[in-house]
Structure formats: structure tokens, C-alpha cells
Amino acid sequence: GFAAGEETIITCEKLEQGACAYAVSSTGKRCVLEKRVKRGGQEEYNCRTSEIEADKLKNWVETDDCIKSCGLERKSLGISSDTLLKPGLTRHLCSTQCYDACPNVVDLYFNLAAGEGVSLPKLCAAQEWKGRRELTADIKSSGGLLIAPGPIQAMRYMVAPASPPVPEQPPPLRRETDSFAPEPISPLPSY
Hints:
By secondary structure, the chain is of the alpha+beta class.
């Protein structure tokens, strides 16, 4: 292990704007780059800690190689599944240079896709199945439809909600009585 003080402690708020996107803090939360327009009209970029946890990763600044191989940009703002709609992004994400070598990026996009009801591994399998044909038609940013091979299934991408949808709660179970006798059934009137 590390001797005290040797390990780098990453705090999103202290990262340069060029290192913020795709970084993971020492607490395992993903860093997110935000843009604010100040009163005079100048743009100001801030890195802050999001509520999104990275899978088994901490203290991580994404490498330039992964940013390039995965078709990403250093100055990506926010974390949203909308980026999945970027033409050609799946081709980069599913490439061996990205998919096999950049677990941090793959984890992020795996979870973003899952949030939209889409499996990234299946998407990549579909990608391979198509071979070298262009895949920009796969995810159309206009209608956001994804066509999978085989029987045509259309899955609709939602625009990422501002907050996660709250699952419907089942009604609380009420115990009317403590006896196990079934409720008497009133006979139907016969006409």
C-alpha cells in the first residue's frame, strides 16, 4: 500500500478544467465540468463533484489516450446520456482501444446507456455485426432511435432527465384483520 501522504488525493474542485471531465475523485465520485457566464459575459469553467459514483475507481484522471481512443473531448460539459447520440461515438466506444483499455470511460457510458434502457455490450455487438459500415445512422440525433440487428427493435432514447425518475411505490399492505378467514363473498344476484 501507500505510505501516508504518498497517494494523490483528487478533489474535483481543485482540478484544472482540462483534467476535470472523466476524472474520479478520491471519494469515488465523478467530476463534472460546468460553465457559468459571468455578469460581464465572460465564460467561467468550474470543476465540481457530482453525485455519480464510479465503479471501483478512485483518484483517477482519464488519460489522453483514452480521451482520444474513445472519441471524447477534454472539455465535455456535464454528464448526460445525450452524448451517446453524438454521431460515431459508439464506434469509438466499442473499439478495442477504448472498450478494452479504458475501464473508467466504459463504466460511465455503460451506466448512462443502461439508464436509457440500452445495453452497451449489445450495442457494441451490433456494431461488430455491421462490420465496417458507417454507424451514424444507428443513433439518429433527430429522433433518437436505435435500431438493433435481427428483429427490428426500436428503443427510444430519452433526453437525460434532470433528476432520476422516482419508481412507483407499491401501495402499503394493509392487514384488515388478524384472522386468516377469507372475506365472505356475497353471491351474485340471479335474475
